[in-house]
Write a structure and sequence with these properties.
This protein is mostly helical. It has helices at about 5-30, 35-40, 45-55, 60-75, 80-105, 110-120, 120-155, 160-210, 210-220, 230-245, 250-260, 265-275, 280-295, 305-315, 320-360, 365-390, 395-405, 410-420.
Length: about 425
C-alpha cells in the first residue's frame, strides 16, 4: 500500500498529541500519589468515563480482528453485535456494586475487594493469576494488531515487530507520565476519532461499494457457503461466544474504571449510553470484512490483513478517499492504543500495589511503588511485543483464550457481591 506522506503527517501529529496529553497529565497530577496515578483521584466524570469505557472495550479486536473473522466465517460474524451488547449487560450488573463497596472501603485496586471479602491468600493468589494472565494476553493482542496494521500499511517495509515497538513506546510514555488521568484524556480523543471513523467507513461503503446488499450479492456468487443461515453447531458457538462476553467487565482494567469514577450516577449514565455503541462498533468492522471477502483471496492465516487490504483499495478510489482512509486508519490506531495503555496500567497496578505493596515490601513510600509500577510497565510491554511476533494466533483466538481465563474470576466477585454477610 502506498500510503503517501499525508498519513504519516496525520499519525505523527496524533502521536505527538498523545505525548502532549501525557505531559499535561503529569503537570496537573498529584505528585507521588498512588490514588491519583492509578485512579485519577476517583474523578472520572460522565463524558470521560463513557469514552474511556468505550475506547478500552472497542479495540484492535474490533478494527483488525473482526474484519479478519468476518473474512473467515462470513455472516456468522454478526454474532459480534449481540456479543458487544452482552458486554454492556455485564457492566450493568457489576459496575455499581464494585463502586459502592470500593468507595466505602477506599480501594485502590479490584483485588483489594477479594482480599477484604474472603480473607484468603490462596483465593487472592488464584484470582490474581487469572487476572494477570488475561491482561498479558490482552496487551499481546494489541501489540499484534499494531504490528499487523503497520506492516500492512507499508507492504512489509516496516515489520510487525518494529511497528508494535514504535506505537508501544508512545503508549508507554503517556501512561508513565500521567497515569490514569492521561489515559482517560487520551481515551476521549481516541474514542471520538474511533466513533467518527466508523461512521465515515459505513458511509464510504455505501458510496463506493454499493452498500451491504450489493456486497452480499458478490459474496453469494463467490462463496455461497458463507452467506447461509448458521446450522446448529454455529448457533451453539454463537450462543457460547455471547455468553463468554458477558464476563468481559471482569477484566482488571475495566474494574479499575469503575473504582476511578466520580459517582455511582456517573457510572450508570455512562453504561446506558455505552449500550448504544455496539451497533456502530460492530457493524463497521464487519462491513470491512464483507468488503474484503467480496474483493480478495487470502489465506486464513493472512486474514487479519484484510483491514489494510480494504483500506488500500478504498484509497485508490480518488484523492478524497485518500484522506478518508487516513482518518479511518488513525481511528484504528486509536482503538488499538486506547486498549493497550489500559492493559499496561492494569499490570502496573497488580505488580506495584497487589503484589509488592501488599505482600513483598510493605510500608514504603508512594514514590517507591510508583517507580516499581513504571518499571513493570516497561518490562511487560517488551515481553508482549516479543510474544506478539512469536505466537502465531489470530486475534479472535487470543480473545477466546483470555476470556476463558477471565471467566474464572467471575464467581469470586459475583458471590462476594450477592452474599449478605460482608467481612468488615
Amino acid at each position: 500500500m502506498d500510503i503517501g506522506v499525508g498519513l504519516w503527517v496525520i499519525l505523527g501529529c496524533y502521536l505527538l498529541l498523545l505525548i502532549g496529553i501525557g505531559i499535561f497529565g503529569h503537570l496537573v497530577s498529584e505528585k507521588n500519589s498512588l490514588g491519583d496515578h492509578y485512579l485519577a483521584s476517583s474523578g472520572l466524570t460522565g463524558l470521560t468515563l463513557f469514552m474511556t469505557l468505550f475506547a478500552s472495550n472497542f479495540s484492535g479486536y474490533n478494527m483488525i480482528g473482526i474484519p479478519g473473522d468476518t473474512y473467515r466465517i462470513g455472516y456468522t460474524s454478526l454474532m459480534w453485535i449481540p456479543g458487544l451488547v452482552c458486554i454492556c449487560l455485564g457492566f450493568l450488573f457489576l459496575s455499581s456494586s464494585l463502586y459502592r463497596i470500593g468507595f466505602i472501603k477506599n480501594y485502590l485496586t479490584p483485588l483489594e475487594f477479594i482480599k477484604d471479602r474472603y480473607q484468603s491468600n490462596i483465593l487472592l493468589l488464584l484470582v490474581g493469576i487469572n487476572s494477570l494472565i488475561p491482561m498479558l494476553i490482552y496487551i499481546t493482542a494489541q501489540c499484534k494488531a499494531m504490528g499487523d496494521i503497520m506492516e500492512g500499511l507499508t507492504s512489509g517495509v516496516i515489520s510487525g515487530f518494529w511497528g508494535s515497538v514504535g506505537l508501544g513506546v508512545v503508549m508507554l510514555l503517556y501512561e508513565i507520565l500521567g497515569g490514569m488521568r492521561s489515559i482517560a484524556i487520551t481515551d476521549v480523543v481516541q474514542g471520538s476519532i474511533l466513533l467518527l471513523g466508523m461512521v465515515i467507513l459505513l458511509v464510504s461503503s455505501v458510496v463506493e461499494y454499493g452498500g451491504l446488499w450489493y456486497i452480499s450479492q458478490q459474496i453469494r456468487d463467490k462463496s455461497p457457503q458463507l452467506t447461509q443461515v448458521p446450522d446448529l453447531r454455529d448457533s451453539v458457538s454463537w450462543l457460547s461466544f455471547n455468553f463468554q462476553l458477558l464476563f468481559n467487565p471482569f477484566y482488571y482494567h475495566i474494574l479499575q474504571r469503575f473504582l476511578a469514577s466520580k459517582s455511582e450516577h456517573t457510572i450508570k449514565r455512562s453504561v446506558v449510553i455505552l449500550s448504544f455503541t455496539p451497533y456502530i462498533a460492530g457493524i463497521a468492522p464487519i462491513t470491512i470484512g464483507l468488503i474484503g471477502l467480496s474483493l480478495f483471496d487470502v489465506s486464513d492465516q493472512e486474514s487479519d490483513q484484510i483491514f489494510s487490504l480494504v483500506m488500500s483499495d478504498l484509497m485508490s478510489k480518488g484523492d478524497i478517499y485518500y484522506w478518508i482512509v487516513c482518518f479511518i486508519i488513525s481511528s484504528a490506531v486509536a482503538a488499538i492504543m486506547s486498549t493497550g495503555d489500559s492493559g499496561l496500567m492494569a499490570v502496573s497496578s497488580m505488580v506495584s500495589l497487589d503484589l509488592v505493596k501488599s505482600h513483598l515490601l510493605k510500608n514504603r513510600s508512594d514514590r517507591f511503588y510508583l517507580v516499581i509500577g513504571k518499571i513493570s510497565s516497561f518490562v511487560v510491554l517488551l515481553i508482549c511485543v516479543i510474544l506478539a511476533n512469536v505466537v502465531k494466533l489470530n486475534l479472535k483466538n487470543l480473545l477466546g483464550l483470555q476470556l476463558s481465563l477471565t471467566m474464572q474470576v467471575a464467581p469470586a466477585y459475583i458471590l462476594g457481591f450477592l452474599c449478605k454477610l460482608y467481612i468488615n
